[in-house]
Specification:
With about 900 residues, the chain is an alpha/beta fold. The protein has 35 helices and 22 strands. The protein has a 7-stranded parallel sheet with strand order 4-5-3-6-14-2-15, sandwiched between helices. Helix 28 (about 670-720) packs antiparallel against helix 33 (about 815-850) and helix 29 packs antiparallel against helix 30. The structure holds adenosine-5'-diphosphate (ADP) and magnesium ion (MG). Adenosine-5'-diphosphate (ADP) binds near residues 77, 100 and 105.
């Protein structure tokens, strides 16, 4: 791993020791201050920035101010490692801090400092729930210091988004942020733009966003008008093709490859010269028709219901109404089944996370696991990974992997281990790689008569997750979780009393005031005393009529607001909920700390891995759930030679070894030799995925340059109040291009033209710019190239002025609106068509690439050509439309 300081955490500490000490000293002096003095710090800092002070110079004082505010508002003393992490973030790096080290609070330090400039700070989280949680939780510190917090949620309308993006610090998920960016760049009115320019961004769980999610780009799509007959023709054609002669099937990759003979057959059938041509290509349709025919079976992969093709989920066997296979496959199946073919979606805008986050002036991130991926961060994002030592030494014991021959024996062994842990009383977290496997284990545990909680990464379950994770550290608790589940919430030994108290209060208010009008507490909380507290709370709330006339949503946000960590009572009705919280909390805290003692005595949280994941990073993430803040804990991975990783990447060697040693199926091996092979296998998979991401990045980079150019031009137009100049520029460029073309072309291909060059120029110009036909061709004959151009410019301006006068007299101001509208509309349409061409190009390049050429270079060259064509096309059509708008159209409709 590379970073600025080598990778010795102590060295990093030493380098920053002085700075950290200084911050601590300043903040300890601030303890004497009264609240108002602390709060006016923000104004003082802002003033100094206005007077030209650099924010780096303000760092020590600003960090000290946050530290002190945090102490006053949340009653938490920031650890040294958190201050250190904050500095590292401010410097635009990734800080690797283990789970439970308090990254959320760490990020407030650089967020506050960078917010002082007023240019905005974005804090990016993996889901809506965490964005909301962190905004409310950290918002208390910011608001104490007079800094405004914004929050973006999925269902928010544009007006509210804009308000929230204008706040000093905005919490938002990666996908909302990306989609807002794309939507902003499709706005027709500049008032519809919700985001400001990008300044500083802190990505939480940065590896999940920049690595795991970087394989699929963000796409905004809309219905397209592709004619259905291409699907039908391809379906007919597919029935004529012969397997292994015209095409080959790759079952494993669910893929079809056309043979050379097949390609020729198709081209003859369709009477076209190339099925991969960039304008209206056929290959995709044909391949989809073949896939539909060969690989997708009715009543297994899909069913027909109400004349619709409905997907059947591979793992669960459940039908998935409304979901559609992408890239035209669904339509191909519809054609095969002769049901109505539904419209395909067309990409209107797209960007990869890689390129999106590079738009920030300064980018930083934090996660528990980044060092294994540091070369990728370094190469693609130009960002260093710095490991921060833990606050307390981690004493977790990572036990060696156990490898079984058969998968069956592995799962039995896992269930046995769960049983043992349950008997001892240790809480256990079992990580699985997918939903199917977590359900398999759940079934096994049921057979053993063991209670368990099942967590999976489905978005609708994230809030439930908080509840399950809150209790995952209690004794005798078995928690099964898939990959992504529970990120962002940490497991506290003995249970999370805070979280539990909040959840139970929220739940009882939901039950009573929103759903059933009755307390359901018995279902999940038997404690009599707590029940009494909750009952009292409900009757008090009812008596004081606090929720009368509130919508359900208001009831919830009111409750959540009152459950925040602040001790100060800011609102007068607050005490009912707050008091109940304090009562419930102190009781839970008592019960839980007893349990905590027990759990610690028997060894803390035990983590079981059921398979090596596709990268070591994800394994480490799972392991990292145990041993937080110096707690005891352990982890162990159970593997089998039938696991995907071992099967695909070099399990043979190990199998041979096991055969030679004549090892029983039930007996695992635990050996160092194996670990090496395993690590190697995993590294192979890691680099495989890295290559995919790198390739996506390199190809998107080409598109990205074009996207930036188009977006910049669009922005220029959108913000301009006088686009006439822009239009004239487009017209003049068009004239240049036409004149240049004929001057060059004409000499070479004289024979082809039986009219004069000037006539050609005139004809073309006449069509595009709608110039009066009185321009005498003979006039052009007597001029040189440059004169021809200036003459046409002049004619164009005169015609344009006339047109403008005409429109102006119809409705003052209209012409400016029309100009803008035409410009934006043409740019957008052309760009969307361009995106499709680029996608086709990408595909056809992949197909062509077994020649000598480097496909990427080839792609770049052709992409450039396509881009130039698009620009010319935009200029020409804009000029064409604006010069011809006859205004028979209702002007209201235009805007
Ligand atoms: P991470 O994201 O690093 O896994 P969180 O930010 O979710 O961790 O914090 C985990 C818990 O630690 C939270 O409950 C938080 O209140 C607590 N915490 C963070 N910093 C401190 C601190 N300096 N002292 C005490 N508790 C802290
Ligand atoms: Mg976190």
């Amino acid at each position: 791993m590379f970073n600025l300081f080598g990778n010795n955490p102590n060295k990093i500490l030493r380098k920053y020791e002085e700075k950290v000490d200084r911050i601590k000293l300043i903040s300890s002096e601030m303890k004497e201050w009264d609240d108002l003095e602390v709060q006016t710090q923000t104004k003082k800092f802002k003033k100094r920035i206005q007077e030209g002070s650099d924010i780096n110079a303000l760092l020590p004082e600003a960090f000290a101010t946050i530290k002190e505010a945090c102490r006053r508002v949340l009653h938490i003393n920031l650890f040294d490692v958190q201050i250190l992490g904050g500095i590292i973030l401010h410097e635009g790096n990734i800080t690797e801090m283990k789970t439970g080290e308090g990254k959320t609070l760490t990020s407030t330090l650089p967020a506050y400092l960078n917010a002082l400039t007023g240019s905005g700070v974005h804090i990016v989280t993996v889901n809506d729930y965490l964005a909301k949680r962190d905004a409310e939780w950290m918002g208390q510190i910011y608001s104490f210091l007079g800094i405004q917090t914004g929050l973006i949620q999925q269902n928010m309308d544009a007006a509210n988004r804009k308000i929230n993006y204008n706040k000093d610090i905005t919490y938002v998920t990666n996908s909302e942020l990306g989609f807002d960016y794309l939507r902003d760049n499709m706005a027709i009115d500049k008032d519809d733009i919700v985001q400001r320019d990008f300044n500083f961004c802190i990505i939480d769980e940065v590896d999940s966003i920049l690595i795991d999610e970087a394989r699929t780009p963000l796409i905004i799509s809309g219905p397209s008008d592709i004619p259905n007959n291409q699907y039908i023709t391809s379906n007919t054609l597919a029935q004529k093709l012969i397997v292994n002669q015209h095409y080959e099937i790759d079952e494993k990759a669910k893929n079809i490859i056309l043979t050379d003979e097949g390609i020729i057959f198709c081209e003859n059938f369709l009477q076209i010269s190339n099925i991969y041509q960039i304008e209206s290509p056929w290959a995709q349709y044909i391949l989809n028709a073949l896939k539909a025919q060969e690989l997708f079976l009715k009543d297994r992969n899909y069913i027909i219901k109400d004349n619709n093709v409905v997907i059947v989920d591979e793992f669960t066997g459940r039908i998935m109404p409304g979901r559609r296979w992408s890239d035209g496959l669904h339509q191909a199946i519809e054609a095969k089944e002769q049901v109505d073919i539904q419209n395909e979606n067309q990409t209107l805008a797209s960007i990869t996370y890689q390129n999106f986050f590079l738009l920030y002036h300064k980018l930083s991130g934090m996660t528990g696991t980044a060092s294994t991926e540091s070369p990728e961060f370094e190469k693609i994002y130009k960002i260093n990974v710095v490991s921060i030592p833990t606050n307390k030494t981690c004493i977790r014991e990572d036990l060696p992997d156990l490898v079984y021959k058969r998968e069956f024996n592995k799962w039995t062994a896992i269930a046995n281990e769960c049983y043992d842990m349950y008997k001892i009383g240790r809480p256990t977290l079992i990580g699985t790689t997918n939903v199917e496997k977590s359900e398999l284990l759940a079934k096994l545990l049921k057979e053993y008569g063991l209670p368990y909680n099942l967590l999976n990464a489905k978005p609708e379950n994230v809030e439930k997750e908080a509840e399950i994770i809150a209790q995952a550290g209690q004794s005798k608790t078995l928690t099964i979780a898939t990959n992504m589940a529970g990120r962002g919430t940490d497991i506290i030994l003995g249970g999370n009393a805070q979280q539990f108290s909040k959840l139970i209060i929220l739940q009882s208010i939901k039950d009573y005031f929103i759903h059933e009008q009755k307390l359901q507490i018995d279902n999940y909380q038997p404690d009599q005393e707590i029940k009494r507290y909750l009952k009292n709370m409900i009757s008090a709330l009812k008596q004081k009529k606090i929720f009368d006339h509130m919508t359900n949503e208001d009831i919830l946000s009111y409750t959540e607001l009152n459950l925040l960590d602040t001790q100060e009572l800011q609102y007068n009705q607050i005490d009912i909920i707050k008091t109940t919280y304090n009562q419930v909390f102190s009781l839970y805290d008592k019960i839980f700390s007893l349990d905590r003692k027990q759990v610690i005595e028997c060894g803390g949280l035990h983590v079981i891995g059921t398979e090596r994941h596709e990268s070591r990073r994800i394994d480490n993430q799972l392991r990292g759930r145990a041993g937080r803040q110096g707690d005891p804990g352990s982890s162990r991975f159970f593997l089998s030679l039938e696991d995907n990783l071992l099967r695909i990447f070099g399990g043979d060697k190990i199998l041979n070894l096991m055969e030679t040693l004549n090892i029983d199926d039930e007996v695992p091996i635990e050996s160092v030799i194996l670990n090496r092979s395993l690590d190697n296998a995993q590294k192979k998979v890691e680099s495989y995925y890295y290559d995919i991401r790198k390739q996506l990045f390199e190809y998107d980079e080409v598109l990205n340059n074009q996207r930036q150019a188009i977006y910049a031009e669009r922005k220029r137009i959108l913000h301009s109040t006088y686009v006439r100049d822009c239009l004239l520029e487009y017209g003049e460029n068009t004239i240049d291009e036409i004149v240049d073309f004929y001057y060059q072309e004409y000499n070479q291909q004289l024979a082809q033209y039986n009219t004069s060059r000037e006539k050609q120029i005139h004809k073309k110009i006449q069509v595009i710019l709608n110039l009066p036909s009185e321009i005498v061709v003979n006039l052009l004959n007597d001029m040189g190239e440059r004169e021809v151009k200036s003459f046409l410019y002049e004619q164009f301006r005169i015609t344009y002025d006339l047109r403008e006068a005409y429109l102006e007299q119809l409705r003052p101001g209209l012409v400016r609106q029309l100009e803008k509208y035409y410009l934006l509309q043409q740019i957008d349409t052309a760009w969307q068509e361009h995106l499709e061409k680029m996608a086709n190009l990408r595909e056809s390049i992949g197909w062509r690439s077994y020649g000598q050429q480097d496909p990427l270079t080839e792609y770049k060259n052709e992409a450039f050509g396509l881009f130039i064509n698009m620009i010319t096309y935009i200029r020409e059509t804009v000029s064409y439309f604006i010069m011809r708008s006859r205004l028979v159209i209702d002007p209201e409709k235009v805007m």
